[in-house]
Amino acid sequence: MHNENEMLNFIDKIVAKEVEEGKVSKVITRFPPEPNGFLHLGSAYAINISYSIAKKYGGTFNLRFDDTNPTKEDISFVESILGDMDWLGIDYGSEPLYGSDYSDQIFDYAKYLVLQGKAFMCDLSAEQMREYRGTLTEPGRNSPYRDRTIEENLQLFMDMRAGKFNEGEKVLRAKIDMANPNITLRDPVIYRIIQAHHYRTEDKWCIYPMYDFAHPIQDYIEGVTHSLCSNEFVNNRALYEWTLNNLDLPNTLPRQIEFGRLNLTGVVTSKRYLKQLVDSGVLEGWDDPRLPTLQGLRRRGYTSSSIFAFLNEIGVPKVEATVDVSMFEHALRQDLKADSRCLMAVLDPLKVVITNLDDTEYLEADNNQENAALGTRKIPFTREILIDREDFSENPPKKYNRLVPEGEVRLKNGYFIRCNEVIKDASGWIVELHCTYDPETKSGSGFTGRKVKGTIHWVSASLGLPCVVRLYEPLFTSKPSEDDLLSAINPNSLITLNDAVIEPAFRDFSGAGDTHFQFLRQGYFVCDNRLTSTDRPVFNRIVSLKSSYKR
RNA sequence: UGGGGUAUAGCCAAGUUGGUAAGGCACAGGACUUUGACUCCUGCAUUCUCUGGUUCGAGUCCAGAUACCCCAGCCA
């Protein structure tokens, strides 16, 4: 592992230099989600970039809801986002901030622009404006309303603010340059009329600032020094700076720096796609464990610490990067292995009768071989036990280290057992195995008499707890496109095993608050807090264990 | 010849004022093993999108070319 000082990402380098040169004294960054959707992995990525910079330089990090469009935003999203921030463990000061709280100031700045002759009221319809805007290769044309007097513009703007016009009838535009090759600068709209109830300002306003105008002002008001956002805003930077530079602001201006988007192989994070998926009903909602929403990841059992470990490992790209999910899975295993208790659970049970055992014996087992602090537990060894069907084979392939007819394996934490008889039903289906155990070979006894090819996990048939285990695979079998999003869905993205059984010690750990476990030889699992009932736990597989076994 | 951004292994990603390609993931071998896990070894770019040039020496400098991404919402 590298240490942070060696792995300065490009943004860190810029900030380090500015701090060193004394250009900024206190670093302030921010995360400005629009409360119109749920946070997802990409959000965590953006949060981490700004948050870690602020933390590293002893600065502060603001959470600011960018709520300048009442038609899309809702209080339920701010609540959900607040919950996610909490889960991530992000310190954003005592209170979240709201862009809408600066409405008066933003309005005043717009008025200032009008007074300076740098903004004008335009009557062009949206469609006309598009025509006047030009194209990527052709310059635009000036609006016929561009030369209104300052007085007229001011009057009209006040009238607009007073609600004298209908939606779409008029807008306030910055007067910049219709021929600028950067379309963002072609007299952009900075205020428009929206007759809608705002969840915070309620009905105080009927006009709302556009992102490009509001954002730099919001940053400035908060004293943000580094406004970090994704690459899609590079073109907007020119307008961000134009706005700041034309407002005659006394204090240090914030600087916008863009970073590349994060993609994960097989994972879709765009809001539109996620909505389409959830609306289709093929998932269980926004917190479906297959979704990269923070709620989904949490339910899936992903820990926030593993998310940050992963995020810090991939760095900050300048261009869009597609990281292999295996890197994320690696971070997950690393994070989970040290403090998860390791239990035994059988997913696809095959009954085994230990013919020479009559009395139940309680065996002792480490909860985590590498972390003695996690203690030990007792495991009941009974006459009838359950093993996983795939741990027995009548026609074993080469290098099969499990149970075979007349073969011997060790029961983890128990004894060697030998398979003497395979019982089948009329159709040839294996119903149960008859085995004998060797008392000499007890776990921890130091028995060295003979070797066994492998060790398998097992659970008492009579004392094990029935449970449901949900296995997950990538949501998509192929890279989904916009129109065949649903057809690309992996039919095996969720496999539910209803006959699984887990050792009884689970109850004690669960009762003590444990949620994440390793199921020996199988992977890491989390107790699903939505589906688990008092009489039957439901587990989600977080991630499987690595395996060098090749079938 | 719209403008802008970016190019280092299968995937991320370091690479100081030019000095002879870090690290991680994945993968492949091997050691260890009462989890086919973990851990530990070993291997994995004669080459940095390409082509020229400058230089004793270029991933780093210069010139040209190519590829990919972003922008034409009164969304953010």
Describe what this molecule looks like in 3D.
This protein has 551 residues and is an alpha/beta fold. The protein contains 13 helices and 27 strands. The strands form seven sheets. The protein has a seven-stranded mixed sheet with strand order 12-25-26-27-23-24-13. A seven-stranded mixed sheet has the order 21-18-19-20-14-17-22, with no helix packed on it. Helix 2 (41-56) crosses helix 11, helix 7 (211-222) crosses helix 8 (237-245) and helix 11 packs across helix 12 (325-337). The longest helix is centred in the N-terminal third of the chain and has 16 residues, at 41-56. The protein is elongated, with a radius of gyration of 31 Å. The two termini are 33 Å apart. Residues 1-6 have low confidence and may be disordered. It binds one RNA strand of 76 nucleotides through helix 5, strand 6, helix 7, strand 11 and helix 12.
Helical/strand content category: alpha/beta
Task: Look at the structure and give the mean pLDDT.
Answer: 95
Number of DSSP-assigned strands: 27
- CATH homologous superfamily grouping of the largest domain: HUPs
Distance between the termini: 33 Å
CATH topology of the largest domain: Rossmann fold
The strand line-up of the biggest sheet is 12-25-26-27-23-24-13
Name of the level-1 CATH class of the largest domain: Alpha Beta
Helix content: 25-40%
List keywords for this structure.
Rossmann fold, 7-stranded mixed beta sheet, alpha/beta, Ribosomal Protein L25, Chain P, RNA-binding, disordered N terminus, 13 helices, elongated, 551 residues, Glutamyl-tRNA Synthetase, domain 2
